[in-house]
Structure formats: structure tokens, C-alpha cells
Design goal:
This protein has a single domain, classed as Nucleoside Triphosphate Pyrophosphohydrolase, CATH 3.90.79.10. It is α+β, with helices and mostly antiparallel strands and 310 residues long. Helix content is 28%, strand content 31%. It comes from Hemiselmis andersenii.
Length: 310
């Protein structure tokens, strides 16, 4: 038994020593924390758009980058007190008080098959003759969506809860510019922040965290470290919009939007570059772009007081 304890202690010391040295050999990924080192992506272009993405890992050049590996190194070198000090010095960005479930709606369609859903829609005057053509989805897609809890049917309308996730890196915000559907080669123009549908059983924060994990997995891993910005009284900025979606023509959709702001560990411009691509793994590729906020650009580009401008 003492010999086993000695082996265990030796193994732990070797692991800690590796962390402290930064694993100078192969690049390191810490999946438990979803923190990865610097990534550069090269895109192959074709007439149909982005056809693939390759990734090369290297050490981050950012001196003040603090990842899970940094935390382990601090703990080994300086003890737990130094680790706590490092955490205390982190810029306060919020602890995530926005943990409120949206108010539920009467749900219809959970147990319906395709013929029953079509009958329901026709009773409410919805013309489905264009469904399944072009970019429009099929009736069965609506059935699956409802069964997954991503939408509900109420008063002849498709009701969706959507969380809009604004990811920040200093003065820059992350936008999805395009989405590529590999199954049919279609390209959807997005030009918006990350958006994720969620069910009434999820909170906006839960859905936001899931969306980050799914759509940005190539960068942040399976366990992203997300810091949500606190809002007054823990309430999300929310609003309701009604309109028609190209996915299901002639079916009015009521969108309940919730907006959250956050920072994500390892998701920075010096890691991804201004433009990058991620593969969601479901036959979808996402194109992303970091954009400087207008107010930040205006403040930086403003002439100095007393300067002469033409």
C-alpha cells in the first residue's frame, strides 16, 4: 500500500510539473474547460463557397492570456492562494444572473404526425404548397422541430423562442456572416450574432451556452467557459416580432427574442483571426467575423481637440 501511494504521488507530481512547464512539447487542449490554444484556419474556396477547413495548433502569442492551463501552472508554482489572486484580478464581466425561464405557451403538435400537422395548418388557412421547394423545408421538418421542443403551434402560428448571443472581445463583437448547408450546397446569408432556438423548458443562458458549444466547438471545445454579463435585476433584454420565415412559407411565425452578452474563454481575435470558419458537425459550416463596435471606432478615430480637419 505505501508503494502504491508513492507511485500515485510521483504520477501527480509529474503531471503538475508538465502543467507548470506549459507542456513545451505537443500543443495542449484542455477539454474540461473548453480552452484551446491559438488556432489558425485556412479555408479552401470553390464556386460553391467554403468546402472545408483545416486547423493548425500553435502557442498563443498573447502574454496576458489566462487559460485553464495557466490556472494549473499558477496553482503548482504559487499554491492555491496565487490561483485565487489570479481569479480575483480577472475583469468583472458578470456572474450570470439571467436564469429565468420564459413563460410557457399552449402547445400543440407534440404527438402529431405529418398528416395531422398539415390538417391543423390547413384549418388555419396556411398554404403549404411551396413547402419542400428551394430553401423551404418540408412538413416533416416542422413535425420534428415541434417534437424537439424548438417551437410550438399556437393559434395557427409557429412560436419560437430565440436567444441572441452577443459575444465580445474588447471593442469587437462576433457576427455570423454565412451558413453553408452541405447536403444541398445552399448558402444562407446571416449577418447577425449567434442565435439559437430553445424550448420553454430551457433558460436563455442554457440555450446560449448550448449554442456556443455546438456552433463554435472547433474553437471552444465541448466545455466552453462562458462569462455572461449581468443585467439589471437579472432580466434579459427581450422583445417579440411576428413575420414569415423562408423555412416555412405562408406560416406566420412569432419570435420571442432574448438577448444576452458574454465573453468566452479562448474565443478571441488573436486566436481565431478576424475571419474564421467552424464546422458544426451536422452538415453545416459557419463563417464568422469580428466587427468593431461603431461607438468604439468613433471614439478612437475622433480627431484630437484643437486638431485641424478638412
Amino acid at each position: 500500500m505505501p508503494r502504491f501511494g508513492l507511485w500515485l504521488s510521483t504520477g501527480l507530481l509529474l503531471c503538475c510539473a508538465g502543467c507548470a512547464l506549459g507542456f513545451s512539447g505537443a500543443p495542449v487542449v484542455v477539454p474540461r474547460m473548453g480552452m484551446r490554444q491559438k488556432m489558425t484556419m485556412r479555408r479552401s474556396s470553390a464556386s460553391s463557397g467554403v468546402v472545408g477547413a483545416s486547423m493548425k495548433w500553435g502557442k498563443s502569442q498573447r502574454k496576458d492570456s489566462q487559460t485553464a492551463l495557466d490556472a494549473m501552472s499558477v496553482a503548482v508554482k504559487g499554491g492555491v492562494s496565487q490561483l485565487l489572486l489570479m481569479v480575483a484580478r480577472q475583469r468583472r464581466y458578470g456572474g450570470g444572473m439571467l436564469d429565468v425561464r420564459p413563460e410557457g405557451l399552449p402547445q400543440t403538435g407534440l404527438d402529431m404526425d405529418e398528416s395531422q400537422v398539415l390538417s391543423y395548418l390547413h384549418r388555419h388557412g396556411v398554404d403549404t404548397s411551396e413547402w419542400g421547394m428551394g430553401l423551404a423545408r418540408k412538413p416533416m421538418d416542422l413535425v420534428k422541430e415541434v417534437r424537439r421542443g424548438e417551437s410550438v403551434l399556437a393559434d395557427g402560428k409557429r412560436v419560437i423562442y430565440v436567444v441572441k448571443v452577443q459575444i465580445h472581445d474588447g471593442e469587437y463583437d462576433l457576427f455570423e456572416t454565412r451558413q453553408h448547408i452541405l447536403s444541398n450546397g445552399s448558402i444562407k446569408e446571416r449577418n447577425r450574432c449567434l442565435s439559437e432556438k430553445f424550448s420553454p423548458r430551457e433558460t436563455p443562458l442554457e440555450a446560449a451556452h448550448r449554442g456556443i458549444r455546438e456552433e463554435l466547438n472547433d474553437v471552444v471545445g465541448d466545455f466552453p467557459l462562458v462569462s455572461f454579463r449581468e443585467t439589471p435585476r437579472g432580466q434579459a433584454e427581450s422583445f417579440v416580432v411576428e413575420g414569415f420565415s423562408s423555412s416555412f412559407p405562408n406560416l406566420k411565425t412569432r419570435y420571442h427574442f432574448f438577448k444576452v452578452d458574454c465573453e468566452v474563454g479562448g474565443l478571441r481575435r488573436d486566436v481565431t483571426g478576424i475571419n474564421f470558419v467552424t464546422d458544426e458537425g451536422k452538415g453545416r459550416l459557419h463563417e464568422w467575423e469580428w466587427r468593431r463596435r461603431p461607438q468604439a471606432a468613433k471614439a478612437t478615430d475622433a480627431p484630437l481637440e484643437g486638431a485641424y480637419t478638412r
